[in-house]
Amino acid sequence: MSPESTGQNEHYLRAFQRVFRTWRGNRPFWAGLFTMVGGLPIAYFPYANMHLGNVTLAMSTTAGAGSLIIGVLLITLGLTMWFHHIVRVFAGVAAILLALISIPVANIGGFLVGFLFSMLGGALSISWAPGEPAPQDAAAEKAGVTGAGTQEPGPEFHSAAAVPQQPEQYDTTVEADGGRHRAG
Fold this sequence. Notes:
This protein is mainly alpha-helical. It contains seven helices and two strands. It is flat and about 85 Å long.
């Protein structure tokens, strides 16, 4: 065993942290988290009872089922942002619309807490874009050196004496069916 290999002796929590950081970086993690956190108070408050001594204060409204549906949909959209980040724009727009609908339906959007978190999560989901991989070495990239140490031909190798390539000649005859394919 080589003393330079760190993978074998790495603690499992550090390995989990590294894997989780990579997973989190490849998707709109914070957008999904804020959307799910916003869905919880929207779904919870219409069914909550507060006890003040002997007095029970029920915050239930006639639209309790609507509040539950909006909250569950926001939680589902947050999970969608995590596990299907390809549809992040759709999920973000849907989260913003559900947050706006929760204002009249679900106790002022879960007393504005759920509304604000859901709006923030939807906006983050719309604005998130996957990152581009960073080049290994900017100086080597600029010089035209690849990782194997070979040089790629740069602009200094092109000369005016180079023979320009001719574009390929395509068959321009029209087929018997007018150029359409068989399905159309």
